[in-house]
Design brief:
The protein has 30 helices and no strands. By secondary structure, the chain is mostly helical.
């Protein structure tokens, strides 16, 4: 009787689950079909649904048939395929890592594929599409392995995303350096990196379809074992599941799917993050979707709807003749950045500052020794930067120039080189001071103006002014950069304030804003000057090229004020960096002091970006190096950090414009190569 009583009770639930799953699946299929029809009908040529139908049935005019068969249908099919495989790859990665923030973007899979294809392109070897997919797969898999190895796979942590985002910054910087060094060989690679589903015929889709099918079949075969992993490693082992083998298999298959999508359309950002996030609430109501075997196809449909919906929305909002030049990946990156920020505010993570930084004490002699060494290094690097370049000069030439007695050639060289050296020195000092202030008031060892999106907001403000106002001056540029930085800072610190600034949530929200700012900058460049990708790359790589003394004046003024304020309020900085209670017990207005220091750091970051472009990780490395050398007292940390930052950026700028002369690399690319491993090192150390 007991069995008879329970059987009718369970059947309605099962039937309801199957019915609900069927209804949702049919609704998604209809949505995707509707978006596909609209996407085919959109374009510069006046080809409507009737012409499309005639083209499909072979009764259309040759011109209309050519547009539909060679362009619009391949574009729509590529959007379907790319969205589906990225959605499924993201769902698989989130399942095996038990991390709702995992995706091909946040695990640096796309960045690894981008670098691998960039290296292959530089060699000049013409690879068929299938071979390019293999290269992209190898690069993406290697990047994912590094991220997973460094961050670990603990549930509920954002370290995996922090490691992936930092590695993405570093790999992208290296790739952009290749684009600047080899403009002919890599022509079109920057636009490709923005992600576009535009196709010229069905060849690419037909070649990538078998790879995508193989990856999907592989994921479905290990679906049951992936479901077991969701219960925890111990529970999965108890069920006889080989945890490590299952996880590695799922990551490899996800990288294969991502590589196929990247090869076909470039990196279409954050579809692998957003699609599973949209399906997750459905899985709570429809139990069938909670299983991987049923959830993967639904996530694939959602990803296809996201890509096609982004493409349709872009063509509906932006004029047709302009929308053709705007990559679909820019739109999905903007949407994904918003998703990342929203999800970061809800993820629990309680990592705090490293205790050793608080306890380390150094003698006065040590401080004076390191300060003297840094001053000597600063003088040496500055002299070398002034003398070396395309044209090598002597100290006598510099002395004659300073007295106004130099020849025309020497005068021209020094008139252009000295402002560059000053911009690099001052920008390095300003970013180092800004990083010191941010790390102190947030007590977050991973904080940095670039990591927190402040530099990205400043760059967006400056680029917006440059692309809209032809005669923008130095002070107006600094003002626009400050407005952009202030806007980003208010949003980042406001969203991350819940739960305290010590949490990695602050860094993750900042990564989201930095990603969104980069996408908007790319969109501005495409809309205003789509054929000049070098303009965007030069700005984003932190170049001092073309700087004049008036461009440096705002930065010099702000840095002088910043150093004075930091020195006068050094004791307050010491107290704020300790904890929340000590400053209040001593009568210090913690909120007001924190706000003042943050405003100063935003001003420093904005003027540095206006003078030298976006230079990352200086504000991260310099304060850590200073505290390691002279202890935690800000009376010593501030001058040492400023000197160290100035030496670092000036040396990076010198190397970038001399080692491969006459070609040049921006200082930001060089500091990213240095800063990315250091950030990952800090992440691993704080985990221990």
């Amino acid at each position: 009787m007991a069995v008879t009583a329970t059987t009718p009770a369970t059947r309605p639930s099962a039937v309801t689950s199957r019915t609900g799953a069927a209804v949702v699946t049919v609704a998604l299929v209809l949505l995707v079909a509707a978006l596909a029809i609209v996407d085919i009908a959109q374009g510069t040529a006046a080809v409507g649904p009737a012409q499309v139908w005639k083209a499909l049935t072979g009764r259309a005019d040759p011109a209309d048939a050519s547009v539909v068969i060679a362009s619009r249908l391949p574009r729509m099919t590529a959007g379907l395929l790319v969205g589906a495989v990225l959605g499924m790859a993201g769902a698989a990665l989130q399942t095996v890592s038990r991390n709702v923030l995992a995706s091909p973007d946040t695990l640096a899979v796309n960045a690894g594929s981008y670098l691998a294809l960039g290296l292959a392109t530089v060699t000049g070897v013409s690879l068929p599409l299938f071979a390019s997919s293999g290269v992209a797969f190898a690069g993406g898999l290697a990047a994912a392995a590094v991220v997973l190895g460094l961050s670990g796979l603990g549930a509920g942590t954002v370290r995996l995303v922090l490691a992936g985002s930092a590695l993405t910054f570093g790999l992208t910087a290296v790739t952009e350096g290749l684009l600047l060094l080899f403009p002919r060989q890599t022509e079109g690679l920057y636009q490709w990196n923005q992600g576009s589903i535009a196709q010229n015929g069905f060849d690419g889709v037909l070649q990538m379809a078998p790879i995508c099918l193989a990856g999907l079949v592989g994921l479905l075969l290990v679906a049951r074992r992936m479901d077991a992993l969701a219960l925890g490693d111990d529970a999965a082992r108890g069920l006889g599941v080989k945890v490590r083998a299952t996880r590695v298999t799922a990551v490899v298959l996800s990288a294969l799917l991502s590589a196929a999508a990247v090869t076909l359309a470039g990196p279409i950002g954050f579809v692998g993050l957003c699609a599973p996030a949209l399906v997750r609430p459905l899985a709570r109501r429809v139990r069938a979707f909670a299983r991987t075997r049923a959830g993967l196809p639904v996530t694939g449909l959602t990803g296809a709807a996201l890509v096609l919906g982004s493409d349709v929305l872009l063509r509906a909002v932006v004029p047709t003749d302009i929308s053709v030049a705007v990559p679909t990946g820019v739109v999905t990156s903007l949407v994904g950045a918003v998703f990342l920020i929203m999800m970061a505010t809800r993820v629990r993570d309680t990592a705090g500052a490293a205790a050793e930084d608080r306890l380390r004490v150094r003698s006065r002699k040590t401080f004076l020794t390191f300060t003297a060494v840094l001053v000597a290094a600063l003088v040496g690097v500055a002299i070398a930067a002034v003398l070396l370049g395309d044209n090598k000069l002597l100290l006598g030439d510099v002395a004659n120039w300073a007295q106004g007695r130099a020849g025309r050639a020497v005068t021209f060289v020094l008139d252009t080189r000295v402002p560059r050296v000053l911009a690099a020195l001052l920008a390095g000092g300003a970013l180092a001071l800004a990083g010191t202030l941010i790390q102190s008031v947030t007590r977050n060892p991973l904080a940095d103006p670039g990591v927190l999106g402040v530099s990205g907001g400043a760059a967006l403000g400056a680029v917006l002014l440059v692309t809209t106002v032809a005669e923008a001056g130095s002070w107006s540029m600094a003002g626009a950069a400050f407005v952009g930085a202030a806007f980003s800072a208010v949003l980042v610190f406001g969203l991350a304030a819940r739960g305290g600034f010590r949490q990695n949530r602050l860094v993750l929200v900042g990564f989201g804003f930095a990603t969104g700012a980069t996408a908007l900058i790319s969109l501005l460049i495409v809309l205003t000057d789509p054929f000049n990708a070098t303009k965007a790359l030069t700005w984003l790589s932190g170049s001092t090229y073309g700087r004049t003394l008036p461009d440096v004046a705002p930065l010099a003024a702000v840095l002088t004020v910043g150093v004075l304020v930091a020195f006068v309020r050094r004791t307050e900085l010491d107290l704020v960096s300790l904890d929340e209670d000590t400053p209040r017990l001593l009568g210090l207005d913690l909120s007001r002091g924190r706000l003042g220091f943050l405003v100063l750091s935003v001003l420093l970051s904005a003027t540095a970006v206006a003078a030298a472009g976006t230079i990352g990780f200086v504000g991260l490395v310099a304060p850590h190096a200073a505290r390691g050398l002279v202890g935690r007292q800000h009376a010593r940390v501030v001058p040492v950090a400023v000197l160290f930052g100035a030496v670092l950026v000036c040396a990076a700028d010198l190397v970038g414009r001399t080692v491969i002369a006459p070609a040049q690399l921006g200082a930001g690319l060089m500091t990213a190569v240095i800063g990315t491993p250091y950030f990952l090192h800090l992440l691993v150390r704080s985990r221990r």
